[in-house]
Write a structure and sequence with these properties.
heterodimer; A: about 450 residues; alpha/beta; 8-stranded parallel barrel; 5-stranded mixed β-sheet; 17 strands; globular; B: about 325 residues; 8-stranded parallel β-sheet; two-stranded antiparallel sheet; about 40% helix
């Protein structure tokens, strides 16, 4: 159970020495109870108190690190079931299922999906290598997967094959997803020997719970839970119940990230896999393994993931700069709006739909919407003029017309003063009016 | 040992609202668990899938849609074909062409289209108005009259026109209406309160709490729906217990990922495939957040989403 601030306070030295950075022991205790400070920041805690507290104040779900360097990812560490309660911390990772026979046919397609969306690299982060019976061929497969610079998941419940694969690529810290009720002791020894995260699967939640408990008793708390069941319904029930047990009921045995393998429950149906990937991105899949990843699937899925895993307290922003649309050049008209990602995407979409070539100028408006940033003084004639100077717009673009959002029509006069030689045009209030407006304008 | 499961069943539940009549009538809502949590308790009415058709015919620029509707010449043909999609639970007729800023079709013209469709289809109907709230008041008034007894859902009424729509379609003609708000729990509740103050019973209206395509601010949709279901079930807030109906296609078919052609973005591949994946991904996300019905356009999306719902029940 989580401790209250007062319970923690009783164990502190109550000296108000401020060495922890908090003004009083009480304030420090409150912070620890909320998870805002670590108990170790107090240098005066007794050993017994520390032992008692570190167990009780440990996060309900562990953060597990897989991969190294470029392929390193953090999984889990969530503290809430719903993003509005606080924020989600570790975004869902997408992996593609590969085997000896299909790797060469799939890898080019996997590598082709690799792009940037609002400062985030969108690509297939993991490769799930399925063991199909031949150890030598399996080692070859995992080497190829490792060479593709993705985190490898060893989908292998054969102890000897797992050991051979790890002998080859253990340095890349793959996930060994192979422990079950029958082999967990041996698998655990292999995972421990090579220092990799161990994936646990089971026939049902009871068996999963007991297997995890047995592995924890054996000293392994570097785990990931394969919640894939016999079908879609069971898998969804598992994913939700495991996460809920950990975060709502504080049952730390299930306090680990999860893997959902869509190859097992929706093989061959790519569109159904997109639907399910969407479901499990929202409801508690830390890693989702699919048969493949086409651009058509990636565009909505990665967009959704980026939305769901944004911090509610930090708005998504796009980089300030010149965004030429519809084949614009230096003679094309200039249009400006704020850097709030939602505004940018809506406006950008409508402007592209109009087909009119134009230069979209995005200035730093603090990631706020048009009216909010205007009210906060972050989107003003001054800020736009400053942006035009900083980005040397006048030397880069010959056109001297600037279209501004209808909601800040009030800026027109002031802008005309600040930008001599420019014609300022006011666009409609809503983005939906942009297509007819731009077509007519042209 | 073993895992101690603790099902989370609520004493409150979502209202049950019936659309349509006879064998094909559908029930929306009624559940007392979080969206799709059929492991906590039985979900009495599975979420439903509506097929969107528009007064302007089908989109011939999308090859697979054009192929599906090939040979359809009248609205009646299109409606029959749409209703035949595997997984279709109801038909949503979008009257975009009525928009005064667009084709500005007259109320009578739109009413004729709706009558033509209603005559050949036995699935429950939803009438989706155009962008103008004012025009919708007139449209809904007329159509609610001619479709009396069909128990049709009118999507939607907003703050600007709820009085007219609730009074005519809702009270005078006994049809079902949908309260629309823009991705905010307080606005959603306010619309429901206003409508209930007009004298509509709780089982005669649903709500569209707003949506977005995946990648376009969907986090607001998630949090709005999460909080609405929390309030409806956890706090027994009667003004938020209406089933949620989400027109997904009208959002997803307008975003860049769906619109741009393969010639312009060759690496993105087939536009048809992009349109379907965007629609399916968004619809699944809406359903897991709390939609009791989604409205889709492409036959593959309809088939896939209804298959997914069936698999989760």
């Amino acid at each position: 159970m989580a401790l209250k601030g007062l319970d923690i306070f009783k164990l502190t030295p109550k000296k108000n020495c401020k060495e922890c950075g908090s003004p009083t022991c009480m304030a420090f205790s409150m912070k620890v109870a909320q998870g805002a400070a670590a108990i170790e920041q107090c240098p005066h805690m007794s050993e017994e108190a520390l032992a008692k507290l570190s167990e009780a104040t440990a996060p309900p779900m562990k953060t597990i690190t897989v991969g190294v360097g470029e392929t390193e990812h953090k999984l889990g560490g969530e503290t809430v079931l719903y993003r509005h309660e606080k924020t989600y911390v570790s975004k869902t990772m997408y992996g593609v299922w590969v085997c000896e026979g299909c790797f060469d046919g799939k890898i080019d397609g996997i590598k082709a999906v690799d792009y940037d969306r609002i400062g985030e690299r969108m690509y297939v982060e993991m490769l799930n290598c399925k063991f199909t019976g031949d150890v030598a061929k399996y080692v070859e497969l995992v080497k190829k997967a490792d060479a593709a610079a993705r985190t490898v998941i060893l989908d292998c419940d054969d102890v000897a094959a797992a050991e051979a694969a790890l002998e080859a690529i253990a340095a890349s810290k793959p996930i060994l997803n192979g422990a079950n009720a029958a082999n967990y002791a041996d698998m655990n020894a292999v995972a421990a020997k090579y220092g990799v995260v161990l994936g646990v699967s089971a026939a049902n939640l009871d068996e999963l719970y007991d297997t995890v408990a047995a592995l924890e008793a054996a000293g392994n708390k570097n785990l990931i839970l394969d919640v894939t069941g016999a079908d879609v319904k069971e898998t969804f029930a598992n994913a939700v119940q495991v996460r809920r047990a950990a975060l709502k009921n504080q049952d730390r045995t299930f306090g680990y990230p999860s893997i959902v393998n869509l190859h097992k429950i929706a093989e061959g149906d790519a569109t159904l896999q997109t639907a399910l990937a969407s479901v499990f991105t929202m409801k508690y899949g830390s890693v989702i393994v699919m048969d493949g990843m086409s651009y058509a699937q990636a565009l909505p899925m990665y967009g959704l993931r980026q939305n769901v895993f944004t911090d509610p307290q930090k708005p998504m922003k796009v980089e300030p700069g010149i965004y030429p649309l519809n084949g614009a050049d230096e003679n094309s008209v200039c249009v400006t709006t704020v850097d709030f990602a939602l505004t940018y995407f809506t406006v950008n979409g409508e402007l592209e739909r109009s087909g009119v070539p134009m230069n979209l100028l995005i200035s730093d408006a603090g990631g706020l919407s048009v009216l909010t940033s205007w009210a906060a003084g972050k989107f003003s004639a001054g800020s736009i003029a400053k942006f035009m100077a900083e980005f040397e717009i006048e030397s880069k673009i010959k056109n001297r017309t600037l279209i501004i959002p209808g909601k800040v029509a009030v800026l027109k006069g002031e802008l005309e003063d600040k930008l001599p030689g420019w014609t300022i045009v006011v666009a409609p209030n809503e983005a939906t009016g942009l297509v007819p407006f731009m077509k007519e304008y042209k | 040992m073993g895992f101690k499961s603790s099902p989370q069943k609520y004493s409150a539940s979502i209202n049950e609202v019936v659309i349509g009549t006879g064998d094909k009538a559908i029930k929306l809502g009624g559940e007392n668990v979080k969206p799709l949590y059929s492991f906590d308790a039985e979900i009495v009415n599975a979420p439903k899938v509506g097929v969107e058709i528009t007064d302007e015919g089908y989109d011939k620029t999308v090859a697979s849609l054009a192929a599906y509707y090939a040979g359809c010449e009248t609205m009646a043909d299109i409606a029959k074909k749409a209703a035949a999609m595997p997984g279709a639970d109801f038909l949503a007729i979008n009257l975009d062409g009525a928009d005064p800023n667009g084709a500005n079709k007259s109320v009578d013209e739109c009413a004729a289209i709706v009558s033509e469709v209603a005559a050949v289809v036995d699935l429950p109907l939803a009438i989706v108005g155009c962008k103008s709230a004012e025009k919708n008041s007139e449209l809904f008034n007329k159509i609610a009259d001619i479709l009396q007894g069909k128990n049709v859902l009118f999507i939607s009424c907003k703050e600007e026109n709820y009085k007219n729509v609730a009074a005519s379609a809702g009270l005078a003609y006994n049809q079902k209406i949908c309260a629309e708000s823009a991705v905010d729990i307080n606005l959603a509740k306010q619309m429901n309160v206003l409508i209930s103050q007009m004298g509509l019973k709780a089982d005669t209206y649903v709500m569209n709490v707003g949506s977005a395509a995946a990648g376009y601010g969907f986090e607001y949709v998630v949090s709005t729906m999460d909080r609405i279901k929390d309030a409806a079930l956890g706090q027994n807030d009667a003004q938020l217990q209406m089933p949620i109906v989400t027109p997904v296609s009208s959002e997803t078919w307008g975003v860049k990922e769906t619109i741009v052609t393969e010639e312009d973005y060759p690496e993105w591949g087939s536009r048809d495939d992009r349109a379907v994946q965007m629609e399916v991904c968004t619809a699944a996300a809406c359903l897991v957040s709390g939609s009791n019905a989604v409205i889709l356009r492409h036959p593959e999306s309809v088939a896939t989403i209804s298959k997914m719902i069936a698999a989760l029940m």
